[in-house]
Amino acid sequence: MIIVRETTKIGRMSRYDPSAFPPFAVTVDLVVLTVRDHELCALLVKRGEAPFQGYWALPGGFVRLDEGLAEAASRELAEETGLRAQSFPGSLPVGQTPAGVHLEQLATYGHPQRDPRMRVVSVAHLVLAPDLPSPRAGGDASSARWAPVSELLGEEQCDGVPLAFDHGRILADGVERARSKIEYSSLATAFCPPEFTVGELRRVYEAVWGVVLDPRNFHRKVTGTPGFLLPSGGTTTRQGGRPAQLFTAGGATLLNPPMLRPEP
Fold first, then answer.
1. What's the pLDDT tens digit per position in 220-236?
2. What SS3 state is found at 143?
3. Which residue intervals of 117-237 are DSSP H helices?
4. Whether residue 51 sits in one domain with residue 177
5. Are 43 and 140 within one domain?
6. Residue numbers of the domain that contains 171
7. Cβ-based burial of 56 (10 A; exposed 0-12, middle 13-18, buried ≥19)
């Protein structure tokens, strides 16, 4: 075992010159997805300041010197939209919030010209939750709204105006992450309330994938996948018709066999 003495490390640090390296900033951008009116929707904020003033963008902002990336993502979500994510540090497992909001790191974006102000590296996060409330604008956002993903992807436009920065690409990556992960993980239940029916879960898959699924086949698959769903013991008539059995998310994180996405 090699032992590095503290005096050696101090000596090396004394020769370190931070000015020898170009400065850059770190931001967090949030792809916040929910299902509203049976459509997969993304949260957008309208920028109230330059650059891209008046453009729709993903919520986010600069990371402070005294906070980590997850903490910055949680703070920006609350400041710009009024939505609450996990408080860091906390006693809950990473990725879970008191309201069941799912938050995970998505990807890092660092093209030298992605921000006209300076060199900025963005660490994007994916946020998923059921029945998220109407957002409110805050921070440097002049307004905020939910927009159907079907209207944003492909053309990467909202109200005829391209999304700010490289947020069109970040949004597309976040949506594809959600679409692919619900194939092999229990992530689809993050869009559902604590207790839900198989029909409600099916509509989540249909909204995220943009397809129509056969109800009987879907019921057979999800109830036959070990650890995916657990009966809660209750029923509901909120969908109309006969009482439907209520379930909660099971303990399985990976689905075997997976829920394969149908071909478009």
1. 999 999 999 999 999 99
2. strand
3. 149-152, 167-184, 198-209, 215-224
4. yes
5. yes
6. 25-182
7. buried
